[in-house]
Amino acid sequence: MKVLLPDNDGHLNSYTLVGDYRPGTPLSTDSCRTIYSAAHVVADPFSLNNPHSASAIHWGDTLKFRRYLASLGLGIAEAMDTAQRGMGLDWKGALELIRQTRMELPNAMVANGVGTDHVDLSAVTSIDQVVSAYHEQLVEVQKLDARVILMASRALAKVASSPKDYSTVYNQVLASCDHPVILHWLGEMFDPQLSGYWGGSNFENALNVVIEIIEDNVDRIDGIKISLLDKEKEIIMRRRLPSTVKMYTGDDFNYPELIEGDDLGYSHALLGIFDPLADVASNAVSRLNENDVESYRQLLQPTVPLARHIFRAPTQYYKTGVVFLAWLNGFQEHFVMLKGAQSDRNLYDFSQTFQLADQANILVDPERACFKMKQLLAMYGL
Fold first, then answer.
1. Partners of residue 186 on adjacent β-strands
2. What would the mean pLDDT of 151-179 be, rounded to a whole number?
3. What does residue 113 show for φ and ψ, rounded to 5 degrees?
4. Which residues pair with 77 in a beta bridge?
5. CB atoms closer than 10 angstroms to residue 137
6. Which residues span the domain enclosing 72?
7. 314-320: long-range contacts at Cβ-Cβ below 8 A with a sequence spacing of 24 or more?
8. For the chain: N or C, fewer Cβ within 10 A?
9. Are strands 2-6 and 12-16 parallel, antiparallel or unpaired?
10. Which of 359, 336, 375 is nearest to 45 (CA)?
11. 42 class by beta-carbon count within 10 Å (0-12 exposed, 13-18 middle, 19+ buried)
12. Average pLDDT over the chain, rounded to an integer
């Protein structure tokens, strides 16, 4: 099958599809790795809400996608940055998303983002306000008996003046958690407002701060997701974690080798790229469960060029590539995002994403994907 795709100058060139899609194999409940997919939301293009302010979600398609992830045995990281949290999805919309998913999938493995994004940053001047903001969201999520991911806080990054401030906030918030939580170290490439998080002047100093917080609260922490796109830093941290605390890779560049691990340990996963790669991820980890490392590598390694393309700088716009692939694969009828974020990447980017998705073997129905690509090109006058 062939399709005409534009190059960077807008010239159309013939591309021959080569992909070999394979449906996912549901992970067993005793899988050797805990795998979460950070899930996107489907916007409602017909909502009367202002698309540049309110969160207009198409609940039917959004929940249908979560049922698909759960059917593969994958966990769902809900209301996180992949769902455009802080970039189109406000706290009111996030809480409703958490509620809807909890009702739809009461027995699924779901962890939900709790942060401080409902407060006006300009009005936050103290760490006590940050603690209160965390508690406000935490109370609402725990009312649902839902598990928690403690998201990094822009408010804390703004007002903290020392590593001690981070320790004070996290110690107080963790003391109020009903169940062990997942911490999240989100790098500034994902959110520039989180620069200098943990109060350290460099990685080593920041690492010491967060390790101390974990050791002081070890019974309240299930694991930590590290999203620095640096495998060496993740491995260094992984080797320093207490034995009961999981490392969840958030490295969308190097996930195959980090999940596979080495003689000293391995990472579990909580990844935005596992939204479009759900089938491949479940198949690959199923092979890992059987100690078939070679098949694991053969399945997952071809997806890395796609992931590195989607998550390239400016990294925070990766959500556009994720939703584009969901549209190509029939999980939604349109390519519209909250706050108009479908415009955050250009047409040449979509052309490259299409080709890399084919080569990663994730185009479910190549004929449908080609048809939709032609529709997109027509919108651009091609």
1. 227
2. 97
3. -70, 125
4. 38, 111
5. 26
6. 2-379
7. 315/189, 315/190, 315/229, 316/81, 316/87, 316/189, 316/190, 316/191, 316/192, 317/341, 317/344, 317/345, 318/252, 318/272, 319/40, 319/81, 319/82, 319/84, 319/87, 319/272, 319/344, 320/344, 320/345
8. N
9. antiparallel
10. 336
11. buried
12. 96
Residue 52 above 70 pLDDT? no
Q: What value does the mean pLDDT take over residues 94-117?
A: 98
pLDDT for residue 201: 80
Domain count, the chain: 1
pLDDT, position 54? 56
Nearest CA-CA partner of 220 in 242, 238, 198: 242
Tell me the CATH number at 369: 3.20.20.70
Q: What is the pLDDT of residue 50?
A: 62
DSSP-assigned beta bridge partners for residue 249: 226, 269
Question: 291 Cβ partners below 8 Å, 6+ apart?
Answer: none
Burial environment of residue 239 by CB neighbours within 10 A (0 to 12, 13 to 18, 19 or more)? exposed
pLDDT by residue (tens digit) across 197-247? 999 889 999 999 999 999 999 999 999 999 999 999 999 999 999 999 999
